[in-house]
């Protein structure tokens, strides 16, 4: 599973990146977590508000920081 955090480096973006890493640890297995800061790449997803969470190429959330449990559920796991 490929997880991307879209954001230019704001505090919420950094928080979402840490939350995503904790969610990956909670779910287990191998999942790639990538931080995307390039504004053109972010706009290619159609995201207008960051931070955004993208899982396997699909935007799951934008404009807010999520909890670890919310990210786990979006990854298909259970809390």
Q: What do you see in this structure?
A:
This protein is α+β, with helices and mostly antiparallel strands and 79 residues long. The chain has a single domain (2-74), classed as Glutaredoxin, CATH 3.40.30. It contains 3 helices and 4 strands, in the order βαβαββα. A 4-stranded mixed sheet has the order 2-1-3-4. α1 (11-27) packs across α3. The longest helix is centred in the N-terminal third of the chain and has 17 residues, at 11-27. It is globular, with a radius of gyration of 11 Å. The two termini are 18 Å apart. The relative contact order is 0.27.
Descriptors for this entry?
single chain; 79 residues; alpha+beta; Glutaredoxin; four-stranded mixed β-sheet; 38% helix; globular
Write the layout of secondary structure elements.
Layout: E1 2-6, H1 11-27, E2 32-36, H2 39-44, E3 52-55, E4 58-62, H3 68-74
Query: What is the H level of CATH, i.e. the homologous superfamily?
Result: Glutaredoxin
Radius of gyration: 11 Å
CATH architectural category:
3-Layer(aba) Sandwich
Averaged pLDDT: 93
The CATH topology turns out to be: Glutaredoxin
Broad structural category: alpha+beta
Low-confidence residue ranges: none
Distance between the termini: 18 Å
CATH class category label = Alpha Beta
Q: Give helix % range.
A: 25-40%
Number of helices: 3
Number of domains: 1
Please report which band the strand proportion falls in: under 5%, 5-15%, 15-25%, 25-35%, 35-45% or over 45%. 15-25%
What's the order of the H and E elements?
A: EHEHEEH
User: Quick one: biggest sheet?
Assistant: 4 strands, mixed
Number of separate strands? 4
Which overall shape is indicated by the principal axes computed on the Cα atoms? globular
